[in-house]
Each structure stands twice: as structure tokens, then as C-alpha cells.
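ok here's the first one, seq then C-alpha cells
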Amino acid sequence: MSDATPTVVLVHGAFADASSWNGVIADLTGRGFPVIAAANPLRSLSTDAATIKALVQSVDGPVILVGHSYGGAVITGAGTDDRVVGLVYIAANCYAAISIIDYPQRWCTDADADEAVQQRIRAGTRARLHHHWELFADVFGNSPYLGGNELNALDLLAAVVSKWSGARQHLARHRPAFNDTLQRIESHPDVAAVFARHWPPTSKASTPNAAT
């Protein structure tokens, strides 16, 4: 299975349809990749993820899931099948955990007026988020930058989104070398001023939303 050419499954976002991938399909098929442009039903995150996961299970061989915009959240939910060998996020929502931590009442009807339920949702989601950061750290390593010898978009994404929900503090304890890499990224001369403006050195690493 690992030697087979993976099928690329393209998942569109909320304000598009499968035809939005036409140019990408032409490029990928020209490079020899089997491609499926999935029809994302856009009903609910759980329904959409289940639909895409069922599609993945119908494919004979390895699959790479590609999500654009809201499709990123969908492929995160669908990507647990053993056939999935890669997840690709294109300007996509791959960080739904923060939305759950910030607004648990949106994800559970029982949480509207029940602070205890909200706290359980936050705690469980934060634990899952921190576990995902550990997996990310193990995959991408720490020398000298995440994508190689030069600073790139992946470095900036990781350095920014790890500022929320106690992720940096968790990584400092459990993946210290990776945390050092994040510090090195935000100290890079090309971006240091931007990080300092948004996260002054005197602020906590989990700001701007330290409460979450």
C-alpha cells in the first residue's frame, strides 16, 4: 500500500463546489495522480466529515486528503481512516479546537447555561489540542526550521497558532526542543518585529486569549 500512488481527494469549502478544483485536477492528473473532487454536503461538520470518510473508505489504496477553507476542518475529522497517508490544508481551518475552547456552548446544546459542562468541554478539547501539538512536533522536528534551512509559511503558522490555549507552555514541558524552534522562528529578523508587536515580551505565551 505504501508503494502505491495515493489518490488525492479534494474537499471544497463552504462557499464553493467540486468544480472549484478543476484547475488543480488537471494539474494533478497530468502528474499521474488519481484524483477525486468530493461533493462536500455542507450540512454539519460531523455529517460532512462522515461523508468524506465514507468516500475515503471506498478508495482502494492510500489517500491524501486536501481541504480548502472549511474543508480543512472536514478532512481533520475524516482523516482518521488508515488509508489516509497525508492531510493538506489550503488556506484552511485546521484549528477548530480553539473555536471549541472559546465557545463550547456552540458545540453542545447542554452547555448553554451549564458552566460545568463548558469546563469539561474546554478541558477535554485542550488536552486533545496539546496531544496534536506533540504529534506535530514529532513529525516536523526542530532543526533549524520546520520546513528546512529557510523560514517558510509552515514556520509562521506554527509559531502563531501555538500562542493560544496554553500550547507553548505544554510544549515547553513535553517537547522542549520543538518549543525552542518556535522561539527561534519568532526571533527571526524578518518577523521578530511583528511577533513583538502582537505578543510583547512581557505578555504570557498563551496570549492574546490567556483565559483559554
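and now the second one, same deal
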Amino acid sequence: MNKITNLTKKSTAIVAMFALVLSFVGIQPERSRAATTWDVSGDYVINMNYDGTDYSHDVSLTQAGDDSLTGNGGSPAGANVYTYTLNSGSVVDNTINFTANYTATADAVSPQTVLSVEGTIAEDGSMSGTWSDNYQGGERSGTWESISGLASGLPGSLAAEDFGVVDYDTGLGQLRGYSAGFGLTDATFENVQSVVVKLYAGDTLLQTNTGTAKIGDEITGNQISSPFDVSGDFDYTTDGFWTNSRESEYGQSEPATKVVATVTLENGKVVTAENTNLSGDPETIYPEENPETVQVTILKYVDGAQATGISADNSDFTMNASWDAENIGAGSGQYTLNENGYNGDPTPYQAMTVEMTSGADYSTSEVMNELTGASCEAETPYSLVGYTSGDSLSAAQNATIGSSANLTNITSDKYIIVWNDDCSTATNGGNIGGEVIGSEGELEVTSVEVVDGTATADGTYENGWSYVFHVTVPTDETGLAMKFANWVKTGDEAETIAAANNMRISSDQADNGGATVSVTAADTYTSPDLNLTGDLDTEEDGLQVEILVEVRIPAGTDNGSYTTNYGVRTQ
């Protein structure tokens, strides 16, 4: 059983649980209803042929939302001496089948006669097929066809609209790639079951966009556009509408020639559309294979946010650096991250390297001294959490924190973030083991309750994971926030679930009436704070509150167990 020992607390309190154990997962695959284009609900007269003679039957069918069938029938048509009730049935694409138990006349009920019917729905809605039963313990079979009543085709069709090369700032990064638009007729995207758009070069798959639950919830019209980034830094995670999957060659050297969309509508009908009419020149969006020079930008983050003179107390953080580039040679040295910026760049706690020849190597590390320690146990004002890097600032912000920042063969500009904790506000510790020990009235997580530890990968909170954190909050620090690292699959660290836009927190003890606060970036405290006013146990020191943490699992996520790290802060 691990204990969490509180350190000296000043104006805020933080519980930072490293190597958090929340591995209660077994992701269930998303379940979709069978695809069909027909609704057979209605009344029919069918002829069932046996030994060359047609016997007319009345049949009444009801098709449910999952394409299952209920209903009843009888013969002869109009008189129904022999009656039966469906006990199972379904419609899949243009195929219909059902079984029914006879319910009238002793010779058909004892022994029980079971009728089995299989058939095909024609383009005009008429139906025909084969039947069999076990009347009086024997075996009978024949053919059947509808002579009255027609199945109805489900509404909805999809058409390709625009397909072109794009290069513009979206506000969520530069989209340098392709955009493909599609439109529905006699249907909308409201409550759509799934949307998948695939980008091809000939028959070679380049990228796949799978729609999240936001499509259908927020896009309710009849048009949609799907972005395929090739050499920009478009942030799919923050955008939240698409899960983007890329093949090894995803359009950076091979031009796209085709886009195919497949949509499963609310009524279960599957519609597709293809566009091979590309506008624009793909060569304009290819990245430079070997830019002449590259730069690395280094930023300091304290408690999950970019440092300022206030948050870093105007401290000077000493950094080591080493480099090897054709234009400046190999070397090493030190520089300082402080409130004044670096080398003419006035941005606080940010530094940029000189331009280095493409293919350069660069590494940086923070000096452990009286200002920064490896952990808060060193009794330094700050502790080093680790480093992240990426091709863009947003990529570095959302990357998994590691123990080093070593870049080799750099062929594009890079970003490195140095993550620190403020030890004056931190509580440091080990693994959650079921009990957390702290001082009376101090911030502590007393337990984590698993409400739902299994999930369906359908992008909804309703079918995701949920946990209740039981927390003691200091009475004079009622603003509470949480942060989470990206979830990592056990046994396969390459498989992750982004914390950003897939998690949210709420509390019935907050005066915002239970409204949720979303996690918008990994390892960054939520904003705004939950304003806690309730107390579940007034006999205990501090406020006793419950924080509901909900996680939704993006469609296409691999099955398995996942873990994350978390932190809790009050102020």
C-alpha cells in the first residue's frame, strides 16, 4: 500500500500521482446494425407453392431499428384457418428470412410446426424465395412469391462534391493536403451511425478518416468535408471530428487520385460515393525533401503551462545543449531560459537555435542544481518532469513525456518542451495502491472508484469509462482542476488514446450544477476550475467531494488495457 506524503504547501495544493494505475479496460468493438436498403414493414399476400399447387398466405411484418422482424400470418389468405407468429427474422441488404411457430389447429400445434422462410427482395420491392416446415414431424419445402404488397426502399443517397488540393491556416494548424466534400440527398448526417472517408493513389490506400461521435451530434445537415493533411500540422485531436490513420506513404510523394466515402445512415442504409476529379496541383503540398536549414525551438513549461515571469518567479533555468551540423560543426554549451527570452527573441522562457544545415543533430537537457532537482524530494524550488518534442508546438504539447530530448537527422523545424513542476505547490508520490495518507484538511485523493471499467470504441461518453475520485479539499482552496497524460496500451506503447478532447470532469459538489469541464491537452490542468461549495461529510476536516472522470474511446481503438497518469490541483 503506497503512501503519498505532502510537502510544504503555499498558495495552492497539487496531488501529482505518477505511474497511475487505472488499468481497468477491455474495449469492446463498436456494434453496428446490419446494413440494409429496404423496409419490409407492411401487409402482404404470398403464394407458397407445394407439389405444384399455390397456397395463399396473409403475412404482416414489422421491421425494427436493428432490422429484426416481428409479425404474424395465416392461411388461406383472408380466412386464416392456420395461423402462425414470427419468433425470429431479419433483413440484411436485399435478403429476408424468418421463422414462425404455427399457433392454431391441433394438427399444426402438436407436434409444433415451425415454418422457415428465406427470400430475396427485388428492385421493385417484390419478394420471392424458398420455404420449409416440419408439419406432423415430416419435411416439406417449396417456393414462394409475394403477390400483394411491396417492400419500401430506405431513403438516402450520397454524392461526391468537391475534391481538391488545399493549403491554408485552419486555426488548428496548417492544412496542407486535400479536402473532400460529399452531400446527402433525402437524408442528413444527424444521428448518422458511421462515416469513413478513404484517400487513394490509384488503388493504393494513403489515409483513412473515421468520423467521431461529433459527426451526427454537431453536423446535422446534409453536407460534410473531410480533411487529409499531408505536410502541414493540422490538429485532428483538437478538431475532434475525425480520427486520422495514415499508411506508410500517405501522400507526401505520391499524388492522390481518388477519394471514397462510405456512410451508414441513421436508418441503417449504407451509401457510398467516389470522386476521381481532383482539382489543384499535388506537388504544391509536398514537403521539401531536404530543406537547406532547420531550427529547434525550446520552451519551458511549469505545472503544465508555458512559463511566465510570474509562474516561474523570474527564475533563470540553466540548460545544456549539444549539436552537430554541417554549417556550424559539432559542439556543446549552455544557455538560459528566463523571463527575458533568448538571443533577441523576447518570448519568456523560449529559445531558438541558430539555423542549422538540414540533417543536423541536436540535444538539450536541464542542469540539475539548486533551482531544479530530479524530483521535489531534492527540496529544490522546481523539479524536472521530462521532455517532449514534435514537428509543431501542438504535437510537442500532446506527445508522451520522456526522459530525454535528443533529435537526430533533423530535416524540418522542431519543438522541444521542458516540463517542470513547482515544488512549492506540489505533492509528490508513488503509485496508487488503494489508500492515500495525508495531513488533516490537506488535499488528498482518498480512493478511486471504478464506475465502468469496460468501454465500447464508438467515441461516446455514454459507452466509455467512468471513475469517481473521492477527494479531500482544503476549505480555503475550493478551485479544483485535474490533468491527465495520454492513455497508453499495456504491452504496446505505440497504441495510445489521447487525453485531449476524450476526457471530461464534473462534480455534484461544484456550484456549476454538474456542468463538465473538458480536458483539452495532455498533461495540462483543466480550465476553468471546478468551484467546489458542497461537502459530503462535514465531520471531516476539509471538503469531502467526489469528482466524476469520464473517458470516451475513439472509434477504431485497439482492444486492450490502457493506463494513464493524473494530477489534482486546488487553489
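notes on #2: The longest helix spans residues 393-398. The CA atoms of residues 72 and 85 lie 4 Å apart.
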